[in-house]
Amino acid sequence: MTPTAAGSTADTTPDALLIRGARPYGEEAADVLVQDGLIAAVGHDLEAPDGAEVIDAEGCVLLPGLVDLHTHLREPGGEEAETVETGTRAAARGGFTAVHAMANTTPVADTAGVVEQVLQRGEDAAWCAVVPIGAVTVGLGGERLAELDAMARSRARVRVFSDDGKCVSDPVLMRRALEYVKTFDGVIAQHAQDPRLTEGAQMHEGRVSAELGLTGWPSVAEESIIARDVLLAEHVGSRLHVCHLSTAGSVEIIRWAKQRGVDVTAEVTPHHLLLTDDEARGYDAVYKVNPPLRTRADVEAVRAGLADGTIDIVATDHAPHPHDAKDREWDTAAFGMTGLETALGIVQHTMVDTGALTWRDVARVLSETPARIARDTDQGRPLEAGEVANLLVWDPRPSAEVDPEAHASRGRNSPVAGRSLPGANRLTLLGGRPTVRDTQLVAR
Amino acid sequence: MKHLISIGDLDRASAIELLDTSSRMVATQERQMRKLPTLVGTTVVNLFMEDSTRTRISFEAAAKRLSADVINFSAKGSSISKGESLKDTALTLRAMGADAVVVRAPSSGAAHKLAHSGWIDVPIINAGDGTHQHPTQALLDTFTLRRHLGGEQKQGECSGSVDGSGLDGLHVVVVGDIMHSRVARSNVQLMTLLGAHVTLVAPPSLVPVGADVWPCDVLYDLDEAIALQPDAVMMLRVQRERMLGGGYFPSAAEYTRRLQLTTERAHRLPEHAIVMHPGPMNRGFEIAGGVADGRRSVIVEQVAAGVSVRMAVLFHLLASNAREES
Ligand SMILES: [Zn+2]
């Protein structure tokens, strides 16, 4: 059973759905017929079968359903911040048909039992596919490998392993993890942060931290780990994925590694494409995130890296927190920002509307490549007849002010609250079933 | 000005006005009846989430000499040390009817949060937040500097009025742990705002990354700074823990050799130069005992100025606000 097919039922799905006039990949308009959970036909002037619902999507962009490789759903253990149910509702509203649930829960997703539990919760919620990520080390302790093979062979079919939130900083352990996951074509997703260089770190180390008197999180703490890891991955011939890359130097290291042929992929978050460390000036901890918001030069570098393919994907690092964890002094507040419901708006604003990416590129960085990295089978697929209908109809024309109170996520810690972002989720289909219509969730 | 959180809240005119008011407060303190009725019926809360008896007593004396009621709310043995948040404490103080809160906290930005989070709506005075700012300390340092060296009396005694003047043309050297010093940050801003030139001296490991854009010079060598013949030298307290935990410098002996203001170094300063220290001092570490007690030292005077400056700040924030309301 694939994670995608799981949990999707045809309860309220119309017999057939004809999406008229949307532009696949933002290109030439076409009609798309969805039937029995699959794309039945793509073409011009398609006939609507009897009983089919016809959706006028003229001017909208048709994309494969978005795939997030980096989501903190918080369940089990962090239900005050988010649950699988609320997190996947948020994902659906953001246009996602799959999320990859990070392992830093309580208990940690470091056994087959926990990852299967998360998978089951995702199937029950059925707002999008939930693909569990397994921990690399037992309890995220960074000391010994978790039972990676058991998780890989469990019903959750884990392929991505990460201690995210913590760095696998021990070079020997990292080497072993990279080697070990080759058995089942797995990948280690590294949260690159040298722990010694970031003790007590609160924000990007630079001019703003010097002024605000907040302990710095230097770029080199990220870059030195990435440099080490790409060399390790090259040495043992393994697959490495770099989470939430945030600095200009990191982009250069990834570019160099790819030129050498290292099997490395990298992600950037929407917030690192948009915001800088200047946001810390008001000591509003909603802007406290790990890795921290960097400088304008870093923002320009990660945009350029995403545009030229050095950075492979955008992933949200959606990290909801209870209000009290943010409404406090900066140095005692939690790290993290929500992202699922604003990700595509930010990508459109920073990359598409600026001409740096086409919509076809967006399909690549927010759907096809994350699915390929995670070896998801029915996600990020071509918009062709015969494929599972995991689809997003996105209207790029309207824009709206972000109101976290209206979000489906339990987290209200959106760094773009009050900002205007372009685009609206016109329709999201999960296995042919609408999960969102005109930005509103559709109950099953 | 509703709050005093950072020197960035001041412009040159308002800073000079605060210093001039401080001068008037000094004058009142020389009278027999030192207590002024200005803030009768006003409650000032000293919220100290970090130990600092000196600063707390200074604020308490300032408030009482303006006839305010003072409530001391300290971390030790209080609900704060039992994990109550700054936010809950603020809500408590609001319920108690505080008219102003003086806050000292270990978190950078704590005073800003109190002032701008909607938890409590009264004037907030920052009495030191983490490694960010300590604006009243900078005001009292500047007040002391101006009294000795300001106006036209650079070479003379502190006699004539310096009201209305800044620190134009003065060169001040600040020595020590710049990275962890809220005093240094506030002083660089205030002294340069008032026209002084500031040179910071520290081992490179105690200069924050990003300080390159500060409006001052940075040197690593105290002798080089003294050769520039500054008008004043301010020595900062250096915590010995910085050696062990952070490895910021190798040993006390090496620090002392390179950066202590010794009698010999003090001797090389120009005749009129003064020596300052925000306290508490590590005698024999960053400053030699003989220099601390020597003729150039204005360290005790700084303490006295602290009360007057804090009276001026309370006066501006509370008495003028009261006038606006009526
Ligand atoms: Zn992370």
From TrEMBL, chain A:
Record bears the keyword Metal-binding: yes
Swiss-Prot/TrEMBL catalytic activity: (S)-dihydroorotate + H2O = N-carbamoyl-L-aspartate + H(+)
Disordered: annotated segments: 400-444
Annotated Pfam families: DHOase
Annotated binding of substrate, by residue: H72, L73, R74, N104, N290, H321, F335, G336
Signal peptide: none
InterPro entries: DHOase (IPR004722), DHOase/Allantoinase_Hydrolase (IPR050138), DHOase_cat (IPR024403), Dihydroorotase_CS (IPR002195), Metal-dep_hydrolase_composite (IPR011059), Metal_Hydrolase (IPR032466)
Active site (catalytic residues): D317
The protein's enzyme class: hydrolase
Protein's recorded name: Dihydroorotase
Lineage: Bacteria, Bacillati, Actinomycetota, Actinomycetes, Micrococcales
TrEMBL record, chain B:
GO-annotated cellular components: cytosol
Keywords on record: Pyrimidine biosynthesis, Transferase
Binding sites annotated in the UniProt record for carbamoyl phosphate: R54, T55, R104, H134, Q137, G279, P280
Record-linked InterPro entries: Asp/Orn_carbamoyltranf_P-bd, Asp/Orn_carbamoylTrfase, Asp/Orn_carbamoylTrfase_sf, Asp_carbamoyltransf, Asp_carbamoyltransf_Asp/Orn-bd
Highest taxon in the source lineage: Bacteria
Domain called Aspartate/ornithine carbamoyltransferase carbamoyl-P binding: residue spans: 2-146
SUPFAM superfamilies per the UniProt record, alphabetical: Aspartate/ornithine carbamoyltransferase
Pathway(s) the chain acts in: Pyrimidine metabolism; UMP biosynthesis via de novo pathway; (S)-dihydroorotate from bicarbonate: step 2/3
Record carries keyword Transferase: yes
GO process terms (BP): 'de novo' pyrimidine nucleobase biosynthetic process; 'de novo' UMP biosynthetic process; amino acid metabolic process
One GO molecular-function entry: aspartate carbamoyltransferase activity
UniProt enzyme class: transferase
Residues the record lists as binding L-aspartate: K82, R182, R237
Domain Aspartate/ornithine carbamoyltransferase Asp/Orn-binding: 168-316
EC number: 2.1.3.2
Reactions mediated catalytically: carbamoyl phosphate + L-aspartate = N-carbamoyl-L-aspartate + phosphate + H(+)
PANTHER family cross-referenced by the UniProt entry: ASPARTATE CARBAMOYLTRANSFERASE, ORNITHINE CARBAMOYLTRANSFERASE, MITOCHONDRIAL
Biological function: Catalyzes the condensation of carbamoyl phosphate and aspartate to form carbamoyl aspartate and inorganic phosphate, the committed step in the de novo pyrimidine nucleotide biosynthesis pathway.
Protein family (similarity comment): Belongs to the aspartate/ornithine carbamoyltransferase superfamily. ATCase family.
Subunit structure, as described in the record: Heterododecamer (2C3:3R2) of six catalytic PyrB chains organized as two trimers (C3), and six regulatory PyrI chains organized as three dimers (R2).
UniProt protein name: Aspartate carbamoyltransferase
Taxonomic lineage: Bacteria, Bacillati, Actinomycetota, Actinomycetes, Micrococcales
